TrEMBL record:
PROSITE patterns found in the cross-reference section: ADH_SHORT (PS00061)
Keyword Oxidoreductase: yes
Signal peptide range: none
Name the record gives this protein: 3-oxoacyl-[acyl-carrier-protein] reductase
Family statement drawn from the similarity comment of this UniProt entry: Belongs to the short-chain dehydrogenases/reductases (SDR) family.
Organism annotation: Neomesorhizobium albiziae
SMART domains: PKS_KR (SM00822)
Keywords from the UniProt entry: Oxidoreductase
Gene Ontology MF terms: acetoacetyl-CoA reductase activity
GO biological process, one term: poly-hydroxybutyrate biosynthetic process
């Protein structure tokens, strides 16, 4: 049976690697994106994976977007909540807007995407909800009160919903990447980035593919006994 997967923020960075890996594993894949049309069109041309534009921060846009994807590809079996943003600032400089944007995308976005899909997964007695949290949701990070709160919230969401999905064949899990070589991490000032790499025992940034492989595993039918779990892939930087 060919299963269908939807990856939010799926045309760039970790999300693109996840979309490509799921396609390689035999899934029908749709990639959502919010803003960067040029990158999305390039991704579509290179991979053949269809792209759909909406913001995960808006509930109605998610519900409409999901309907469109399902009309094109069929019911979604696997949801990968990958879309995420940073608005880093020391707390004394953080604005309410920086707080709100990050919570709306990284935490409410996970609700907005999972909720419209949930009943269908329950009815079909199968589902995989995989949310990309972060090492910084586990340990906290200077200048990321907003981001760390949102990513820690994703872990609470995962553990609560896992209990509700279990009897319906739906697993709900999280992956916590450490520092991965993506645009988001490359935007950190170079000096700060070098000091971060010095704290990673394996001595390097992670690769997006290393996160994608975790997702492919959790999405598989064979991972049905794993739910409410977190896979940490951070090069040994932090142990829970
Ligand atoms: N711990 C303690 N102090 C720190 C610090 C840290 N980790 N980082 C910075 N500081 C200190 C600086 O030394 C400086 O102190 P002084 O004023 O005494 O010199 C102060 O905090 C920074 O003050 P600035 O006025 O220079 O701060 P700013 O308004 O310019 O903000 C910053 C700079 C946003 C903090 C910038 O340094 C930065 O982006 N840091 C990186 C934050 C980070 O790691 N983000 C993760 C992004 S990647 C990601 O999120 C993906 C993922 O999931 C892993």
């Amino acid at each position: 049976m060919t299963r269908t997967a939807l990856v939010t923020g799926g045309s760039r960075g970790i999300g693109a690697a996840i979309s490509i890996a799921l396609k390689g594993a035999g899934y029908k894949v749709a990639a959502n994106y919010a803003g960067n049309d040029e990158a999305a069109q390039k991704f579509k041309a290179e991979t053949g994976i269809p792209v759909y534009k909406w913001s995960v921060a808006e509930y109605d846009a998610c519900a409409d977007g999901i309907k469109k994807v399902e009309a094109d590809l069929g019911p979604i079996d696997v949801l990968v909540n990958n879309a995420g943003i940073t608005r880093d600032a020391p707390f004394h400089k953080m604005t309410p807007q920086q707080w709100k944007e990050v919570i709306d995308t990284n935490l409410s976005g996970v609700f907005n995407m999972t909720h419209p899909l949930w009943n269908g997964m329950r009815e079909r007695k199968f589902g995989r909800v995989i949310t990309i949290s972060s090492i910084n949701g586990q340990k906290g990070q200077f200048a990321q009160a907003n981001y760390s709160a949102s990513k820690a919230g994703d872990l609470g969401f995962t553990k609560a919903l896992a209990q509700e999905g279990a009897r319906a064949g739906i697993t709900v899990n999280a992956v916590c990447p450490g520092y991965i070589a993506t645009d988001m991490v490359m935007a950190v000032p170079e000096k700060v980035r070098e000091s971060i790499i010095a704290q990673i025992p394996v001595g390097r940034l992670g690769e997006a593919d290393e996160i994608a492989r975790c997702v492919v595993f959790l999405a598989s039918d064979g991972a049905g006994f794993i739910t409410g779990s977190t896979i940490s892939a951070n090069g040994g930087q932090f142990f829970v």
